[in-house]
Specification:
The complex is a heterotrimer of chains A (about 100), B (about 475) and C (about 475). By secondary structure, chain A is α+β, with helices and mostly antiparallel strands. Chain A is about 35% helix and about 10% strand. Chain A is built from three helices and three strands, in the order ααβαββ. Chain B starts with 6 loop residues before the first strand and ends with a helix. In chain C, helix 4 (about 105-110) links the parallel strand 2 (about 70-75) and strand 3. The two termini of chain C are about 15 Å apart. Classes of the chains: A alpha+beta (about 100), B alpha+beta (about 475), C alpha/beta (about 475). At the A-C interface, helix 1, helix 2 and strand 3 of A face helix 9, helix 10, helix 11, helix 12 and helix 13 of C.
Chain lengths: ~100, ~475, ~475
């Protein structure tokens, strides 16, 4: 599969990362190489093979429904860029 | 309103129900409503670097309960998936949900559309129900061009219930929503508080020419949190779609919001921004295994379901479908009815009438639930007993009920205090009848002349003279006898 | 003292030959002398460390010490620590201080060790040369113009330069083992699920594992005893009985079956590395091991599969870095979208952005089946290869890296060249198997060569035993760079 400049810009938008035209151009070249590497996967027939998501074959452990966390707002917000009245501030969200 | 006779409406509902667990679905923070901003958002809910989700058993139990109640298949293994998108109230930049393999698959809900004797039964199929986490909240006021983000709600467990597009009118959609609302509260898995956002509906609406087999393009109306808005939004959307199509336009798939002030639906996101959620199984979570034992344990702990209880009330007590249906509409009301019978009310139909009539009327007026009624099941049973044993006439019973509601004591006390004991002593009644006959010769003459109405007038006089306490049946008999 | 093993240090502390404060000061002084050049540490806080050392001394005096109490440990700057920033070598987290400690940090704290500092690494653990750190490259103590390997380059360099007696690292595709090999030290990645990932900033969730790095297999065993253990906050953490990873150190190797994958000794492997590996195998034969030829036919797909799965998971894991609740927020921006895009563009380095783009792409609409799903299927084939191989052998040996440490900048231009460094190490991450690297000689330019050992699930003790026996019969692991 070949990737084009418009794809690079589209993905960068999906990933919410600004890239300049120059960066997009450079990324295109590098990504093209990387995708050539990835194409090797298609040389193996995987019909009937179950996908594997973890090395371990275990099921999800269930936690008892209990409140175990107390109010740690001050500690948790110590690294916040902008906070007011306990709320995180961001540019206005338009629906 | 656009002419609809050539068009068929197709509606499917997606309902987000907040589950009544104490803690969040993936963290141990509290889910209690109304706390100060970000005081119930743990490091996991805030998506700080390095945190991980762990699944709450309570949320799984709620999902299983729901699945059993709607006759669905409970998946032995289901998978949590990440739904990736950026929004300030979504701390991780993805929502943990279930995509390809949800925990509840299929099922159905039978609803009553219309009321009273005209009610029609309809079965709405469910596609699935899955577990996911709720997002936080954005507050738009007071921050000088900025929004304030509160993540207390982030991580609250949701059960998203998806129906098949089986509904054909806004009435059906509302009936379905109300039925679902009732059910989740009945099961105790959701508190149903729509103002607080516990129960939110998205309606997928499309139209097609009658007889067409293909579905039309649908638009999704998001976040309707009242039955009234649900109805109005659907209606306005139907009108708009039909008008658009009849004018030769095309419907473009979109997500819309309902504006209640303007009573219109308005596009939220344009086609270009159509979200690519890049779903993939969440590698921080393992497959959810639900064993037969787990399901059996939940089944054993479940209350009798409204449908079963309704059928039982009809069979056991001879109640009409409608009456049984209303009584089993809420757990509280059904419990009240059962308690009234248990407290000694011998006639179920009488009990049902009082509950569906006087009691419900006052409950609605006072905006309280059956459990909070000043007239308890025991008090009502006592009242019904006194009617049954002839102490109290049905007419005066209403007065006694009102007094009980006002806290004046039990039936016996009130009857005594107000001197409302029914007069059943034939001698006493005869005396009163004689007095009335003597005092109303004109009515006697008219009756003898063949006017039936005169008889009722005389009965009325006897009741008046006895202050309503004379046993009406006996009054009838004695009057008839004396008039010959 | 700086060359002493952990066992020796522990004995010295117990015998009061040295105090924890003195020992910690010793290493802090070495850091002061060498870090300006080598750049192995991002953060050092003498006051913080010495306070912990003091507390350790109190425990030693009270006789309540654990085996590693009082010993300073260098932690990879990916484990969150209260009281000391955690940067993940990124501008995104340049000033981030976590309100909670990683599980691994809590374990070391409970054991009474001292946090010596946070070591440098490739940004967000993405890299094999420690050239992508926002805080500058790390130099290989063996050759200042060479890379130390990555992503745990700082940890490996700190050990080689005797700036720390022990260190923690993380390994997603070889990030403990490869830098260990390039710096002539020992490092182990345990079976997936053995070390809790809570508080270990996530790169690729299904592949990441934290593990120990030190100068010998025996030291690794002692560190592993502290690092492992069930953590209920990590859903992928396994509930297992506690084990002593040093229990098999003295077990003889007679009859040990060593598998050699024929695919690992062909094209791409440097002749100098091959020579050192052959010599190591000869030693193992002398110790009584039997060499068995095995095949891992799908191993060649491990690099492409990894470079789909890891970036995919990473792209999602890194979405939380959006400038809203912590981390870098652009100093100037317009609307919300602008804030996201600028904050992330400024906060992330080039390699991180590249991997986010790859990951976003392979998960995007239409590509999921061909890429992510395909890679997960290949993963299963790779795991099955190992399963078959382990029926014929107990351990699989080979080279850790195809070459010795390359020069700084030599592979920076073409990412694919960099990715191919991981060719021998990645498969163990995909399968979740334990794997380690120990020094086994020198190659071109006198730079160290590492021997790679892969074991079956949960056989760390056996692996450490084999490595220990080898390290008793040879002295490669005692070599240190000149002039250090």
């Amino acid at each position: 599969m070949s990737i084009e400049l418009k794809d690079v810009n589209h993905i960068a938008n999906l990933a919410r990362i600004d890239i300049s035209p120059a960066e997009a151009q450079a990324a295109l070249a590098q990504l093209t190489n990387i995708f050539a590497l990835i194409e090797e996967m298609q040389t193996v027939d995987t019909t009937g093979v179950e996908p594997m998501s973890h090395g371990i074959e275990v099921n999800q452990r269930l936690r008892e429904d209990r409140v175990t966390e107390t109010d740690q707002r001050e500690a948790n917000q110590a690294s916040a860029p902008q906070v007011e009245a306990g709320l995180y501030l961001v540019p206005k969200v338009i629906e | 309103m656009a002419g609809r006779k050539d068009w068929e409406v197709v509606i499917g509902l997606e309902t987000h129900t907040q589950l009544t667990t104490a803690s969040k679905i993936f963290s141990g923070a509290s889910t209690a409503f109304g706390a100060a901003p970000n005081t119930q958002a743990s490091v996991v809910d805030l998506a700080l670097p390095g945190v991980l989700p762990v699944l709450n058993k309570g949320a799984v139990d709620c999902a299983i309960k729901f699945g059993l109640a709607v006759g669905s298949h409970i998946a032995e293994k289901s998978i949590f998936a990440r739904k990736n998108y950026f929004y300030p109230d979504l701390p991780k930049g993805y929502q943990i949900s279930q995509f390809e393999i949800p925990v509840v698959q299929g099922g159905s809900l039978t609803i009553q559309v219309g009321s009273g004797q005209e009610a029609v039964s309809k079965t709405v199929r469910l596609t699935r129900a899955h577990l996911e986490e709720d997002a936080g909240k954005s507050l738009h006021e007071d921050f000088a061009g900025m929004s304030g983000i509160d993540l207390n709600r982030a991580g609250t467990p949701l059960l998203e219930i998806v129906s098949e597009p089986d509904m054909r009118s806004s009435a059906e959609a509302v009936a379905y929503a109300k039925s679902l609302h009732s059910l989740v509260m009945w099961l105790g898995i959701c508190d149903g508080n729509m103002q607080e956002g516990s129960f939110r509906c998205d309606a997928n609406v499309s139209v097609r020419k009658k007889g067409a087999t293909e579905y039309g393009t649908r638009r999704e109306i998001k976040n309707l949190n009242s039955f009234r808005f649900l109805e109005k939004a659907i209606e306005t959307e139907i009108d708009w779609q039909i008008e658009t199509l009849e004018d030769g336009g095309k419907i473009r798939q979109a997500t819309v919001l309902y504006d209640p002030d303007k009573n219109e639906t308005r596009e939220m996101r344009s086609k270009e921004d159509a979200m690519d959620y890049r779903y993939f199984p969440d590698p921080d979570l393992l497959p959810l295994a639900v064993s037969a034992e787990m399901v059996a344990a939940i089944r054993a702990s479940m209350p009798e379901l409204p449908e079963a209880m309704c059928a039982r009330f009809m069979a056991q007590y001879g109640l009409s479908a409608y009456d049984a249906g209303v009584l089993t509409g809420s757990h509280a009301l059904a419990d009240y009815f059962s308690a009234t019978l248990a407290a000694g009310a011998a006639d179920a139909k009488t009990a049902a009438n009082w509950i569906l009539g006087d009691l419900s009327g006052r409950l609605n007026e006072a905006d309280i639930g059956a459990a909070a009624a000043p007239v308890t099941p025991a008090l009502l049973a006592g009242l019904i007993k006194r009617i049954a044993d002839g102490t109290l006439s049905s007419k005066l019973a209403k007065e006694v009920f009102a007094a009980m509601w006002a806290g004046e004591g039990d039936a016996d006390r009130i009857i005594e205090a107000k001197g409302l004991r029914q007069i059943s002593d034939s001698g006493a009644i005869e005396k009163i009848v004689d007095e009335v006959l003597a005092a109303n010769p004109k009515s006697v003459e008219e009756f003898r002349a063949g006017r039936e109405k005169a008889f009722n007038a005389l009965v009325g006089q006897v009741m008046k003279a006895s202050k309503g306490k004379a046993n009406p049946a006996q009054v009838n008999d004695i009057l008839k006898r004396k008039l010959g | 003292m700086q060359n002493a093993s952990l066992k020796q240090l522990s004995a010295a502390l117990a015998a009061k030959q040295i105090s924890s404060v003195e020992l910690t000061r010793l290493f802090l002084d070495r850091i002061k002398a060498l870090n300006g050049d080598l750049n192995a540490f991002i953060t050092v806080d003498e006051g913080f460390s010495l306070a912990q050392a003091k507390a350790a001394d109190a425990r030693l005096a009270a006789g309540t010490a654990d085996p590693l109490t009082g010993i300073p440990i260098a932690h990879k700057d990916i484990f969150v620590t209260r009281g000391m920033r955690t940067t993940c070598a990124s501008k995104m987290l340049e000033n981030y201080v976590s309100p909670y400690d990683a599980h691994v940090i809590e374990q070391f704290s409970a054991a009474g060790t001292v946090t010596l500092g946070k070591t440098n690494m490739d940004e967000f653990a993405m890299g094999s040369s420690n050239e992508t750190s926002y805080f500058g490259k790390v130099k290989n103590p063996w050759a200042r113009e060479a890379v130390p390997g990555g992503s745990s380059g700082g940890a490996a360099a700190s050990l080689a330069a005797r700036m720390a007696p022990a260190a923690t690292g993380t390994d997603t595709g070889g990030s403990i083992r490869q830098p260990a090999a390039l710096c002539g030290v020992s490092g182990l990645k345990p079976t997936y699920g053995t070390v809790s990932r809570f508080g270990m900033i996530a790169f690729a969730s299904s592949l990441d594992q934290g593990g120990p790095m030190a100068k010998s297999a025996e030291d690794l065993g002692l560190l592993l005893n502290v690092m492992t253990g069930f953590d209920p906050r990590d859903s992928t953490s396994l509930e297992r009985d506690k084990e002593d990873y040093t229990r098999d150190l003295d077990r003889p190797l007679q009859g040990l079956r060593i598998g050699l994958p024929k695919e690992h000794f062909g094209e791409g492997l440097g002749a100098d590395v091959a020579k050192a590996i052959e010599a190591a195998l000869t030693e193992f034969k002398k110790l009584g091991a039997i060499i068995v030829d095995i095949s891992l036919p799908n191993g060649r797909l491990s690099v492409p599969a990894y470079y789909v799965i890891a970036p995919a998971e990473a792209s999602s894991n890194l979405s939380r870095f959006d400038g809203v609740r912590y981390g870098h927020r652009a100093p100037e921006y317009g609307d919300l979208m602008d804030m996201y895009k600028k904050s992330r563009a400024q906060g992330f380095g080039a390699e991180v952005k590249r991997r986010i783009l790859i990951g976003t792409y392979v998960l995007s609409h239409g590509y999921y089946d061909a890429y992510y799903l395909k890679a997960q299927k290949l993963r299963r084939l790779i795991a099955q290869d190992f399963k078959a191989a382990f029926e014929q052998c107990d351990l699989i040996l080979g080279p850790t890296s195809p070459s010795v440490a390359f020069d700084i900048g030599a592979k920076a231009a073409d990412p694919v060249q960099m990715y191919l460094n991981d060719i021998y190490t990645i498969a163990a991450n995909l399968a979740g198997l334990p794997a380690m690297s120990i020094p086994c000689g020198f190659g071109n330019h006198g730079r160290p060569v590492g021997l790679h050992i892969v074991g079956n699930y949960f056989t760390e003790a056996r692996m450490l035993g084999a490595a220990h026996q080898y390290q008793q019969a040879t002295d490669w692991h005692t070599h240190q760079p000149q002039g250090i």
